[in-house]
Structures are given as structure tokens and as C-alpha cells.
Amino acid sequence: MHAYRSHTCADLNKSNVGETVRLSGWVHRVRDHGGVLFIDLRDHYGMTQVLCDSDSPVFAEVEKLRSEWCIRIDGIVKARDESLVNAKLPTGEIEVYIRDMEVLGSAKELPLMVFGDQEYPEETRLRYRYLDLRREVMQRNMVLRSDVVASMRKRMWDKGFREFQTPIITASSPEGARDFLVPSRLHPGKFYALPQAPQQFKQLLMVSGFDKYFQIAPCFRDEDPRADRSPTDFYQLDLEMSFVTQQDVFDTIAPVLGGVFEEFGGGRKVDAPAEWPQISYADAALKYGSDKPDLRNPIEMQVVSEHFAGSGFAIFAKLLEQEGTEIRAIPAPTGGSRKFCDRMNSFAQQQGLPGMGYIFWRETDGQMEAAGPLAKNIGPERTEAIRQQLGLGVGDAAFFLGGKPKSFEAVAGRARNVIGEELGLTDKDRFAFAWIVDFPIYEKDDETGKIDFEHNPFSMPQGGMEALEGDPLKVKGFQYDLACNGYEIVSGAIRNHKPEIMFKAFEIAGYPKEEVTKRFGGMVNAFQYGAPPHGGCAAGVDRIVMLLADEDNLRDVMLFPMNQRAEDLMMGAPSEPTSDQLMELSLRVIPQE
């Protein structure tokens, strides 16, 4: 017999009754039933109930066992009584009588329990991650992650892509976040960087004649952490293709991701990729207050400025006299109660706004009536026009925000999400996807008047060089994101592969040709030797698994994540280097005040 096991803790069933078996695993829990000890023995694959009575030669040793001790047992498989069968377990029809046992690893008093669903502070979970990972939900999440990655790989190979590995140590390249720098021992005073993404290398692969590339790529960014963003490293399904249009990229990646969500989504509805809408960046901001809208929520915001211009509601009327301002409405079907409206007004105040005006419609003496402070100020004709525009009726409400859109859009988007959640309008049993397209390439600083890049500077401008001759603020890029349930899960672009267009694009943002050549010399030089039109995207593996696992935090789908302060509490990183290490790298640490 094998030194540790003849079967896993998920293998045994009625067909094994009478066999002598060997199992190894962890003591999940112990139950003492007056002279008979029942132990749930757990390994990666499942659970088997083993038991020991006073007739067993190792009863005294079994009595010493505690939770999470790692043991090996030999025993005889017996059928459970019909009344004791556990239908929830694959091994629930049998149990194993212990005849021999060996302790493979004893355990100290546990800082967190593996059995049960207790909540523990994040610090405890990360410091003792190896115990946290033993819990059933974490085992399930990590298996899901592994299976998702395997499925992505297979689907990409099936589409004719080949997987190539790009460098992990490279040159610093600003891509929207801070680099992690790596000092060079051989070149004192110079630094490498960990790649924020394989962006330049995958484009160079296209110039090198490789038609289709993909990689499950590690990326490194020194970022401020959020629940849906790691502060150090993350993984993405990275791909690039030559001789493609924007639609070609959509038609390639959408079935891959749609298939993954169907395969691992637990039966939740997934719209066919051909039905995923393409929404302009401007429309997404207008209707949803976000460039990653949650389309499970049917609410769409609308501009209602005309109904407030010159009205009796002085705050909005005066706002509209200023250039670039507007009033937007957030419809709230079934939200027509003063209590709910007051709660949403408080929400806006918590978000840093003075408040959020509202109107709700109720029935009074058999007649529909508009109620609320706004309704009294603007009168029945204007409130009725608003109601008709928004398609609302008795029992419904609408909320209003005004000013320059960028000052309130984000709060309006969050309010839309809260309204959808609280009123039960958001379909929780669905994955809703949307392509966000037509991103503006440039933005203007209101204070300095300076033009700079708003989004990816390496995107091909729609209209090419001709578009760059006009108003920069009207230039759109062939850049796109894919949103799912309120998260950005894909970002990509058709690349600007023509040096003359690239130099012009950077010149508009105030970057001379010399600086572009210095910063991106490798790519700029390559583009002068017959670069093909190319484009691609990257899909965030961590976020996709987070959505599939129905978790709210990336750390619950990553094996060994950092905490909110970018610290590895388990391994003690970051740590102070030794004097010898610093000398070898020609570095000196300056103490912080």
C-alpha cells in the first residue's frame, strides 16, 4: 500500500465497503459521542467520516487529536445505517473504522478556525494565509481560478493563437501607474522596471511577424489598493493581433470570455456576445455616470435641463445660466415615497454634494399628484413634462443633479447603482456585458488650458493624421473597454503604428519628438521598418474570477495577496535590505523625516 493513502477523502463509496484503506488529511472536526470518536477527515478533494471506539488499538492516540492536525489512518470501510447517510457528501454512505493511525503533523492552537464560516480580520487571514486557504470557500475559489485560466488557454489555442512569454525585467515605461524599479548591480545608478503590462513587447511581436499572440501575463503596478485592484501585481489574459480592425478584436475575445462565463457562471444568464451593446464613452457617462456601467440595472439617466431653465427653482435655473452646465434626472421606478427620497438625498450628502433634488408621484383623491420640494417650485406643467419624458407614473420618483457634468457624474452613477439595488431593479442572476468605445484621446485642464492625454496615448486616432489637424478635444481613439456588472474587465485598442501620426499625437499634448524617441525608442524605431496595423486587449483574470466566484474583493481569489498597505504580512515584505546588499547595488537609503 502507498505510504500515505490508497484513496483521497472524496473517493470512497458503497462499492468500497469491506475494503482496508489508507487515508491522509487534516482533522476538520472531532465529535465525542461517549466512547466513540467521530472525525471528519479532510483533504483537497473532499471529506470522509472516520471513527474510533475503545476496541481500536489506537483509541488513546486518537483521543489526543485536535483540529487541523495532519494524520494518516488505516481502517475498514463500512456502510452507514440508512438513517445516518449524509446525502450532501459524495462519501456520505460510508465511514471508516480506524485500526491504525500516524500523526504526520500536529498543530498549535489555531489563530483562525478552518471549520465553520466565522469572519476574521483581514490582517489575521493574510498573516496566516496557509490556514485561511484551507477553508472550503477559499479552496473552491482557487480551484475556480485555475480552471478559468486553463479554459482561457484552451479557447485561445482553439482560435489559432500561440502563447509567448515576454520579459519580466525591462525598461521603465509610463503606462498610467508607478513602476516598481529594480536596481542594476552591473550598471550602478541605473534601474530596470517590472512591466506594468507586456504592451510594448506584444506590439513588437506583431512587428516581428507573429500574427497572433496571447499570454497569461503577470503585471506589476505600484498602485493605491482598492477592493477590485491589487496594489502590487495582477494577471491578465493578454492578446495582440495583426491586420485587424476594432470589430475583429471584439469578435475574437467576446466568444472566449462569453464561453468562460457560461462555463463557470453557475447557471447565471450570459447574453450572447453578438448582443453585447457598443456604447460610446460619452453616452456611458450620460446614461450611467460611469465608463463601466452595470447594465443589470435598467435605469438610464437623462438630460432634463429644458424643464428647469427659467423655472421657479432658482438653484438649477441659475446653474443653467453658466456655460457647460446641465441638469440630469435619475428615474426611480417604484421609488415614490418620501422616506426613500429623503434617504437618497442623504446619500448624496454623504458623497460630498449639497443634496439631490427629487420629485415623486402619488395618487391623491383619485388623481396623480407630483410631490416634493422641486414639484412645488417648478409647477405642474414642468413636472408633468418631466414625468412624460422619463416614462414614470404613480409610485415612481426621479432624482436630479446639476452643474458641470464632470462635477457630479460619478456621484450620479453611484446613486443610480444604489437606487437599482434598493428598489430590486438590478437583475442579480445575470452577467451583463457592454463594449465602451469612442474614448476621447485628449482633455483640457480647466485651470491651465493645457491639452494632455485623457486616455491611452498609443491608440490610433479615428481619422488618422487628418483628425489631428482639427480640434484635439474632438479626437476619438480606436480604444475600447469591456464592462461587466459594473467592473472593467477588458481594456484595449487598435494601436498607432505609424511614427508620423504618433509624433503628431504626442506633439499636441506637448511632448516633442526627441522626448518620445527617448522614452519609447524601441517601439518608435521598430515602427520605421514595416509595422503592420495591429491591435489587441487585455482581460483581467483576477476580476473575472472575482465576478464568477461572487466575491467583492480580489484578495478572495488571489493565493497570496498583499494587504491594503501593500504589505505581505506572512512573508514580511517589504523588508529592509542588508548593508552588503545596498553596497553591492551602489545604493544608500536616506532616512525619512
Automatic annotation (TrEMBL):
Keyword Nucleotide-binding found: yes
GO biological process terms on file: aspartyl-tRNA aminoacylation
Subunit description: Homodimer.
Xref: Pfam families: GAD, tRNA-synt_2, tRNA_anti-codon
Site (Important for tRNA non-discrimination): 33
Record-listed L-aspartate binding positions: 175, 221, 455, 495
Role of this protein: Aspartyl-tRNA synthetase with relaxed tRNA specificity since it is able to aspartylate not only its cognate tRNA(Asp) but also tRNA(Asn). Reaction proceeds in two steps: L-aspartate is first activated by ATP to form Asp-AMP and then transferred to the acceptor end of tRNA(Asp/Asn).
A single GO cellular-component term on record: cytoplasm
Region feature Aspartate, mapped onto this chain: 199-202
Domain Aminoacyl-transfer RNA synthetases class-II family profile: 144-561
EC number(s) from the headed UniProt entry: 6.1.1.23
Localization in the cell: Cytoplasm
Recorded coiled-coil stretches: none
Residues annotated for ATP binding in this entry: 221-223, 488, 540-543
Similarity field: Belongs to the class-II aminoacyl-tRNA synthetase family. Type 1 subfamily.
UniProt main location, coarse: cytoplasm
Source organism (scientific name): Pseudooceanicola nanhaiensis
Keyword annotations from UniProtKB, A to Z: Aminoacyl-tRNA synthetase, ATP-binding, Cytoplasm, Ligase, Nucleotide-binding, Protein biosynthesis
CDD domains: EcAspRS_like_N (cd04317)
InterPro entries listed in its UniProt record: Aa-tRNA-synt_II, aa-tRNA-synth_II, aa-tRNA-synth_II/BPL/LPL, Asp-tRNA-ligase_1, Asp-tRNA-ligase_1_N, Asp/Asn-tRNA-synth_IIb, GAD-like_sf, GAD_dom
Molecular functions per Gene Ontology: aspartate-tRNA ligase activity; aspartate-tRNA(Asn) ligase activity; ATP binding; nucleic acid binding
Name the record gives this protein: Aspartate--tRNA(Asp/Asn) ligase
Recorded catalytic activity of this chain's protein: tRNA(Asx) + L-aspartate + ATP = L-aspartyl-tRNA(Asx) + AMP + diphosphate
Top-level EC class as recorded in UniProt: ligase
